[in-house]
Amino acid sequence: MAQVIDDFAQTIQLDQLWSDPYPIYRRLRATQPVAWVPAANRYLVTRHADIAYLEKHPDIFSAAESPSLMTRVMGHTMLRKDGAEHLRERKAAEPAVRPRIVKQRWTPVFQRIADELIDGFLERGEADLFTDYAAPLAARSLAAVLGLAEVAGADLEEWSQAMMDGNGNYGDDPAVWQRADAAARGVENAVDAAIERLTAHPDDSVISAMLHAEDPLSHQSIRDNLKMFIGGGLNEPRDATLVGTYALLTHPEQRAAVDADPGRFKDVFEETVRWVAPIGMYPRQTTVETELGGVILPAGARLGIVLASANRDESVFTDPDAFDINRTNRVHLAFGGGPHYCLGTWIGRAQVGAVSMPTLLRRLPNLRLDETVPVRWGGWVFRGLLNLPVRWDA
Amino acid sequence: MPKITFVQPDGTESALDVDAGTTVMMAALAASVEGILAECGGNAMCATCHVVVVDPTRPGLPPVSDDEDEMLDCTASPRKEGSRLSCQLPVTEELDGLVVRLPEEQM
Ligand code: FES
């Protein structure tokens, strides 16, 4: 008897995911919520409920993926550790990124950087907000929080991109390894200089917190974790700034609502990271045979946890593809969950929700898209705008 | 076994018999009590396990730590007298009879 097998997952190509993953996720959620996708070489998990469940069971769904390209590029960072080992490193970094210090110490720094960048192009009347604003703002802010204030934003941008490309170097391209290794060395040198300075003169930064923690981290562990923070801490605030600003510029009623009540930027931020989650997918690996979403997974199965899809799950969010700051249900998973819950959550909320977006809209009169240059989107593991051409009345 | 009661904003109650040694947050998750998100897994970093203790002067409640205090200023529903992070409340025999209200919103 002929059997028709609908194995849509087999046909998915990475370039399709890169250009627009959302229609693919919609179909996976409906028909194959836990699906082996050969092109990604892992099972993609796409439903909100399954992801919320697995985030509560880190003993079964381990972050210590092996082999891991990330470990090859960055060494042993907390992002690929579980249990007590992970918690120790995380706790050492936390004092630098908790809400109170973010508000008192870092938000004024973000504000100064944002204003300086805008001062630099205000008269011009036009800009690409990616290269002129969001990327340098994210880089310089990250440098300050980490304790690398003397490092140029442009260096940080290059290191971040080079290491990220290494993390995704599934094709084993030697040129990519070379650039990633050079970036990793650049970070190590900068961190070593910071360690020397901060050992004698502690401050509020992440490196200082790790050095002076009750249970201080080794210098090697600080170096490795700093590679992770630089590789993974720059694109999210950058992308959220761009996507949120784009969303407001293309939804005039919602923009009017935030103009009338700047307190609503909080809602804009949460809806932005729900709508287009900056981290679209992260890896996990099963430690034992287990069942997830009706599928039996063997021990050692490699999974891709698709936060971008959970955030558009129609069983949780009404009209999930629409950008809507007035949603009442906002249980998005953009920050992940469980022990690896995003360490930069409060930094992101402040940098983007309280500084980068509000400052732009306040300071650039009649800010609008430059209709002559199309905006471009890209990515699925990390997704965002690749440019944001705008004009204003100068 | 200590008994802990969760009261939803609409007044619905669930009374759980909980083993000592867990936390109020873990007990709520294990019983799928609605309204506890606990996104950070009990790390005092997310403020989505917010509850309001009905009798904050009762015995068995540990003092609010600095980390918990700062996070309680970040809750989605406004902080009240008796507001706590349920992940920072260890269940002990002394806590038997605890009643907590769930806030309207966690995010
Ligand atoms: S679970 Fe996150 S603060 Fe309690």
From TrEMBL, chain A:
GO terms for molecular function: heme binding; iron ion binding; monooxygenase activity; oxidoreductase activity, acting on paired donors, with incorporation or reduction of molecular oxygen. Keywords: Heme, Iron, Metal-binding, Monooxygenase, Oxidoreductase. Gene3D superfamilies: Cytochrome P450 (1.10.630.10). Pfam families: p450. It comes from the Bacteria. The keyword Cell membrane does not apply. The keyword Transcription does not apply. Coiled coil: none annotated. InterPro entries: Cyt_P450, Cyt_P450_B, Cyt_P450_CS, Cyt_P450_sf. Belongs to the cytochrome P450 family. This is Cytochrome P450.
